[in-house]
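Researcher: Good morning. I'm working through a list of sequences from a screen, and I'd like to move beyond sequence-only analysis. For each chain I'm collecting a predicted structure so we can compare shapes side by side. This is the next one on the list. No need for commentary yet; just the structure.
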Amino acid sequence: MCVLLSLKLKQEEMINKHCVLITAYKDSRLINRIISQLPEDFGKFVHIDKKSDISETDINADVVLKQHKIYWGGLSSI
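Model: Good morning. Structure tokens for this chain:
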């Protein structure tokens, strides 16, 4: 998964960069508040649960994906 995410950013942007991975289901406003508090040079990756009402365009991150259904406590959340 990280390999797929890193392909969306330029290779030189990924060298020695800290990244934050967020799995989200609801409250896009809170997710954006959290992202806005992160340092500018951090990579910000968000996966939105496919069952969620949040749109990929609602989130202000480097990479936003909505590809998989996540069942909390199950293997799909890993």
